[in-house]
Amino acid sequence: VQTFENAEWQRVALMAVGDAVLAADPDGRVTFLNPAATALTGWAEDEAVGRPLTEVFRLFDEQAGRPASLEASGEPANGRAGGLLLRGRDGGDRPIEGRALPLAGGGTVLVLRDLGELRRAEEAGRESEARLRLALQAGRLGTWEWDLRTGAVALSPALEGIHGRAPGSFPGTFEAFHDDVHPDDRDSVLAALRATAERGGTYQLEYRLLPADGRLRWVEARGRLMRDPAGRPAGLAGVCLDVTRRKEDEEEIHRLNEGLEHKVEERTARLREANRELESFSYSVSHDLRAPIRHISGFAEMLQKNAAGKLDPAGERYLRIITEAARQAGMLVDELLAFSRMGRAELRQTRVDMRQMVEGVCRELEPETEGRLVRWNVAPLPEVRGDPSMLRLVWRNLLTNAVKYTRPRPKAIIDVDAAERDGEVVFRVRDNGVGFDMRYADKLFGVFQRLHAVEEFEGTGIGLANVRRLVSRHGGRTWAEGAVGQGATFYFSLPAGTKEGE
Amino acid sequence: MAELKRILLVEDSPNDIELTLAALEENHLANEVVVARDGEEALDYLHRGGIFKMRAPGNPAVVLLDLKLPKVDGMEVLRQLKSDPGLRTVPVVMLTSSREERDLLASYNLGVNAYVVKPVDFADFVQALSKLGLFWAVINEPPPGSVSRVSVP
Q: Which of A97, A351, A405, B93 is the most buried (most CB within 10 A)?
């Protein structure tokens, strides 16, 4: 005891050290405890002093589970026992290592170290390693190292698996690694690894493996240059991820996409073929159908001329009917051809002054309104972008209809105006003619659809079908309103974007 | 006394031939019409080959050419005519049922001199053929080397 009191610095040092220090007299009673020993045992110095050492310092053998003791001896190694637990005052066990040092006067000094922290750190290390291993396995992730000083290459068991090798069978040379890489990828892999080895930093690669087992695999690799403590390049270390599945999926998606594209191309080709057939059909209609109609009309006419006076009234009438029917058939074919031509013709968009166009069409219709009272009310109309010849045909059809179906009226009134609403310009042609039954409004725009007898109003039933087609080619809509005997209103719209100046 | 020039009508349909001749006859233009029934015959006539080997030399004042013909079609006849130095100057009028844009374009690209769509209505047809015949066989001055004779009205 006196030894400690002799020098204050010794006591201060004992109080400050991290190891626990206990002293006992020759009778085995505690004479000293530093704060680290208090923390370890749970005994305060003033409580412990005078008590038997065996009460304050209770040791157990961790494996055997029975009380143990530190044999006091001069040999420090003797005290370095593993697997010792110290049972604290609170009953909790803590792993420790320690030495018992005999004093000259017969007493003992115990120097102990709490191993709990270390154990926990070791445990945590083992756990995180296990977790990493699990992750590496689950993710088909391997690690590798290339020692630049010896040239040795080490693959983790998982990476050996990715290389198609049994665990532990990789020869450990760079050549073996190099040989496993797909021949086409060897140069780029080698270049990237070399660049990292020379310049430092990291690498990131994607390459194919074609090892001895012949199975192609895709690998995504990342790694970096490791340096020795002196800063000299020591080796490369990295992880390699088996991305074969992903690559296969990508290739499958690519393949499916190509298949889809191929299918689209095929369909487009078939559609084009169908269109071409339709075109050649209408072409042959124009040649092959027009010719016999022309012949009927021609020969009927010649007969009429030659047989003048020789035919009875019935014969004359039959000839007139033949001529008229041929004329009608010719008109039908011509209009059908015009209809099909308009559908195929290219849209040639320019600026179109709709008011000017409508006034032009009205003038063209003057011969048909001769001797009739027709009042045209044409409001100012906007300029639009569109195909002038197509739009002219739209107006011509609508205005011809208005003139035609107002024929029974003593005074025809035809209004033309336009309004912009909901992103489109809507044009309107309204007449006070015979109108139509709204029940048949949908039929109006169909090909060869007619709501009147030919004797009543001439026509082929293609005009409005053409209007709809031409307007829809401009991205617009067509519709109509009317009632029997109360006039009709025809509308067509063009997208407002086609209005000029916007 | 009008000078009547020779017309080569290339037409395969007998009905169309008869109607065309009838229409031309309205103006007494039918006498100097030579008819070829297909493109090959037309080329033979122009080249003085085949059945026309023995014919007297000289080009027609105009060729009235149908588009759709057996063997060699009208477009090919036109192409060969316009690429032959000896025949290039012979006026060619397409007389066809087709008013297809591509036919119009192709004909004019090959150097056709006129393009007429046969009207369905016979009165219109007669009128068109009369005008055509009068213009090419009477009014127009053909290139040198065309056959003509003095008509006796």
A: A405
Is the torsion defined by CA of B8, B14, B16, B21 positive or negative?
positive
A283: contact with B, CB 8 A cutoff: yes
Answer whether B118 sits within 8 Å of A294, measured CB to CB.
yes
Which residue on chain B is closest to A331 by alpha carbon? Answer: B120
As averages over each run of 10 residues, the pLDDT of chain A (502 residues) reads: 64 86 89 90 88 85 73 44 77 84 85 84 86 73 89 89 88 90 92 90 91 88 90 90 89 91 90 79 74 89 86 89 87 79 79 92 88 92 90 93 92 94 92 89 78 74 86 91 91 76 42
- Mean pLDDT calculated for residue range B36-57: 90
Answer whether B97 sits within 8 Å of A302, measured CB to CB. Answer: no
Contact A243, A251 (CB under 8 A): no
Please give the single-letter amino acid code of residue A478.
T
Q: Contact B118/A295, CB-based, under 8 Å?
A: no
- Given this model, what pLDDT does residue A75 score? 46
Q: Which residues in B lie closer than 8 A to residue A345 (C-beta atoms)?
A: 101
Interchain CB contact of A295 with B (< 8 Å):
yes
Let me know the angle formed at the C-alpha of A327 by A326 and A332, rounded to the nearest 5 degrees: 95
Q: Which of A443, A436, A432 is nearest to A465 (CA)?
A: A443
pLDDT at A73: 47
Task: Give the distance from residue A445's alpha carbon to the nearest chain B alpha carbon, in angstroms.
Answer: 25
Give A172-228 as a 3 state SS string. CEHHHHHHHECHHHHHHHHHHHHHHHHHCCEEEEEEEECCCCCCCEEEEEEEEEEEC
Residues of A in contact with B118 (CB under 8 A): 290, 294
Please state, in angstroms and rounded to a whole number, the distance separating the CA atoms of residues A327 and A66.
Answer: 125
Q: Which residue of chain B has the CA closest to A286?
A: B98
Q: Pick the residue of B120, B121, B127, B130 with the most A CBs within 10 A to test the interface with A by mutation.
A: B120
The DSSP call for residue B49 is -
Dist. CA B64–CA B10, nearest whole Å: 6
Task: Using the structure block, give the residue that is written with the tokens 């039918």.
Answer: B30
Task: Identify whether the C-beta of residue A474 lies closer than 8 Å to the C-beta of residue A460.
Answer: no
Instruction: Tell if the CB–CB gap between B13 and A299 is shorter than 8 Å.
Output: no
Q: CB-based contact (8 Å) between B19 and chain A?
A: yes
Residue of A283, A289, A297 to mutate, interface with B, max B Cβ within 10 Å: A297
Q: Does B121 touch chain A (CB under 8 A)?
A: yes
Q: What is the pLDDT of residue A501?
A: 44
**A302–B22 CB contact, under 8 Å:** yes
Q: What are the φ/ψ torsions at residue A350 (nearest 5 degrees)?
A: -145, -175
**A356-363 own/partner pairs: CB under 8 Å, 24+ apart:** A357/A388, A357/A391, A357/A392, A357/A395, A358/A395, A358/A399, A358/A416, A360/A392, A361/A392, A361/A395, A361/A396, A361/A399, A362/A399
